[in-house]
Amino acid sequence: MALILVRYLKKYSENPTPFTWTKGPEHFQRIIEATKEYQAAHPKQPKQRKSNANTKKD
User: DSSP letters of 1-58?
Assistant: First the structure.
């Protein structure tokens, strides 16, 4: 698998082309809105701190 990636990168590096967007800003706006709606419906639970076993209490 890694060999395929190395070959691809080597070939791409020989003749790099500039990156061009295939989607317009309206597509990304829909993604942003959907993400905000999902996050509002599924709020993050607060993370609990893990206790440190190496800490000594005197």
Answer: -HHHHHHHHHHHHHS------SS-HHHHHHHHHHHHHHHHHSPPPPPPPPP-TTPPP-
pLDDT digits (tens, 9 = 90+) for 22-40: 777 788 888 899 999 999 9
What is the 3-state composition of the chain as percent helix, strand, coil, each rounded to the nearest 5? Answer: 50, 0, 50
pTM, two decimals, is 0.41
The token pair that represents 8 in the structure block? 């691809």
Place of tokens 């890694």: 2
